[in-house]
C-alpha cells in the first residue's frame, strides 16, 4: 500500500447512465474519462450491471466483458486505475438482479448453491479478464449488496451471519482465483455498522478482503438531526473510518472511504463544495486511510425518469462534463501534498455484540459521545469493549486513553 492517499470517483457515465453497457460507446466513455482525469484524480470505480453481463446462470456475455476491458484500457491511457464492482446489484434506488434469481426462479442470493456458484463464476470471469492489466486494482464484490439481506428491502434474501460469512469467503476466493494478488474487497452500506439485525457484520467488514470499505451518507439521520455544517455531518465519514477499526484484527488495516457524497436538499448545491472540503479534511486526519472515492463523477441526465431527486445532481461534473465547485474542491485535495496523520490516542469503547450496533447509530450514545469528543478538540478512534483492557492491542494501535460513552456524555436527567 502506498503511503499517499488515493483520490478517485465512482464513474457514472454521462450518456445513458449505467445502461450504457447496452449500447457501449467508447468515444463517449473516453470523453467522460478525460473530464475525470483533468481533475487530477487517480482511480475510478466502475459498475457492470449484473443482468446485462450474466443474463443466464451459465451465460456470461463475452462482448460485455470485452467492453469492460476496453473501458479499463481507456482509463489506463488517462492515468486512471480501476476498481470493478461485480454484483450490481443495487444502484441509485434501482435493483438489478438477473431473472434467474427472481420471481418464477426465486432463489436466495446468499445461500442457494447454484446461485452462489453462478456468482462465483461471474466474479472469477471478470477478474480473470483484467488480471493482466496493471491498472486493474481489483474487484469489489458488489455495491452495498447487504441491502438485499434484510429490512428495509421490500423483498429480502434472508441469511444468517454465518451464511454471509461463508458467502463472503467464497466470493472473495473466486476473485482471487481470477486475479491473484489484487485488492479484492467487499462493501456495504452503513446498516452493517448501525443495524442490530443486519446479517452482514462489522467484524466481517473489517476482516474479510484486502481493505475495509465504508460508505458515508449523511441522509442516514445525521444531517436531519444535526444540520449540514455540524460536527457530526462534517465528520461522519471520519467516524465510520474510525468505527471500523474497532473490529479489525490488523492494527494497521487500510480503510477505503469508497463512497461519500453531498446529497441535496440536506446539503444544498450552493453549500456542497464547503461540505466536500470539510468532509475530506476530516477523513484525511484518519491514519491508515487507503483513499477517498467521491460519489459520483457525472450527474444523471434529466432525460432518464424515476430517479430520486437527489440522484440527478450528485456528480462532480454536470451531464455535459462541466466541473462543479465540488469537483474543484476535490481537485484541490487531490493535488495538495499529503502528510500522514499521527495515531489517534484516545479510544471510545464500542460494543462487540453485533446485536447492539444501534448504540453506534445516529442518536445512539456511542455516536453522540464520539462527536462530543470531536467538538471538544479530541481525535478519537474506537475500541471494542472486549479489547478495552488488552494492553498489547492498545499499544499496537497507539492508544493511551480509553473512555466510555458514560464518561463523555452529560449525566441523563429524568424529567
From TrEMBL:
Q: Which domain of life is it from?
A: Bacteria
The record ties this protein, via Gene3D superfamilies, to: Glycosidases
> By its UniProt entry, which InterPro entries does this protein fall under?
GH
**What protein name applies here?**
Uncharacterized protein
Amino acid at each position: 500500500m502506498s503511503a499517499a492517499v488515493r483520490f478517485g470517483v465512482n464513474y457514472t457515465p454521462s450518456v445513458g447512465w449505467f445502461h450504457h453497457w447496452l449500447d457501449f460507446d467508447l468515444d463517449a466513455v473516453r470523453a467522460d474519462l478525460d473530464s475525470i482525469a483533468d481533475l487530477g484524480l487517480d482511480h475510478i470505480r466502475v459498475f457492470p450491471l449484473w443482468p446485462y453481463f450474466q443474463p443466464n446462470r451459465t451465460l456470461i456475455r463475452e462482448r460485455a466483458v470485452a467492453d469492460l476491458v476496453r473501458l479499463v484500457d481507456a482509463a489506463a491511457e488517462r492515468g486512471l486505475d480501476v476498481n470493478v464492482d461485480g454484483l450490481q446489484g443495487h444502484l441509485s434506488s434501482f435493483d438489478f438482479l438477473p431473472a434467474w434469481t427472481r420471481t418464477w426462479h426465486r432463489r436466495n442470493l446468499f445461500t442457494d448453491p447454484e446461485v452462489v456458484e453462478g456468482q462465483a463464476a461471474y466474479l472469477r470471469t471478470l477478474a480473470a479478464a483484467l488480471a493482466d492489466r496493471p491498472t486493474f486494482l481489483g474487484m469489489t464484490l458488489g455495491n452495498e449488496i447487504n441491502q438485499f439481506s434484510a429490512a428495509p428491502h421490500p423483498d429480502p434474501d434472508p441469511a444468517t451471519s454465518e451464511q454471509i460469512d461463508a458467502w463472503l469467503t467464497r466470493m472473495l476466493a473466486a476473485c482471487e482465483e481470477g486475479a491473484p494478488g489484487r485488492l479484492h474487497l467487499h462493501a456495504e452500506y452503513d446498516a452493517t455498522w448501525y443495524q442490530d439485525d443486519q446479517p452482514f457484520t462489522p467484524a466481517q467488514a473489517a476482516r474479510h478482503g484486502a481493505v475495509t470499505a465504508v460508505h458515508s451518507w449523511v441522509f442516514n439521520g445525521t444531517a436531519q438531526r444535526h444540520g449540514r455544517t455540524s460536527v457530526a455531518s462534517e465528520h461522519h465519514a471520519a467516524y465510520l473510518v474510525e468505527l471500523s477499526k474497532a473490529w479489525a484484527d490488523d492494527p494497521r488495516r487500510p480503510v477505503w472511504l469508497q463512497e461519500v457524497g453531498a446529497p441535496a436538499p440536506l446539503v444544498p448545491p450552493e453549500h456542497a463544495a464547503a461540505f466536500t472540503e470539510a468532509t475530506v479534511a476530516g477523513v484525511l486526519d484518519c491514519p491508515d486511510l487507503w483513499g477517498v472515492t467521491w460519489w459520483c463523477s457525472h450527474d444523471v441526465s434529466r432525460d432518464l425518469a424515476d430517479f430520486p431527486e437527489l440522484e440527478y445532481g450528485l456528480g462532480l461534473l454536470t451531464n455535459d462534463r462541466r466541473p462543479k465547485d465540488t469537483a474543484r474542491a476535490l481537485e484541490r485535495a487531490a493535488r495538495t501534498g499529503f502528510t500522514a496523520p499521527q495515531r489517534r490516542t484516545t479510544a471510545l469503547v464500542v460494543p462487540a455484540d453485533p446485536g447492539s450496533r444501534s448504540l453506534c447509530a445516529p442518536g445512539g450514545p456511542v455516536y453522540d459521545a464520539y462527536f462530543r469528543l470531536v467538538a471538544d478538540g479530541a481525535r478519537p478512534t474506537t475500541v471494542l469493549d472486549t479489547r478495552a483492557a488488552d494492553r498489547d492491542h492498545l499499544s499496537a494501535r497507539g492508544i493511551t486513553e480509553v473512555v466510555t460513552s458514560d464518561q463523555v456524555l452529560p449525566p441523563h436527567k429524568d424529567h
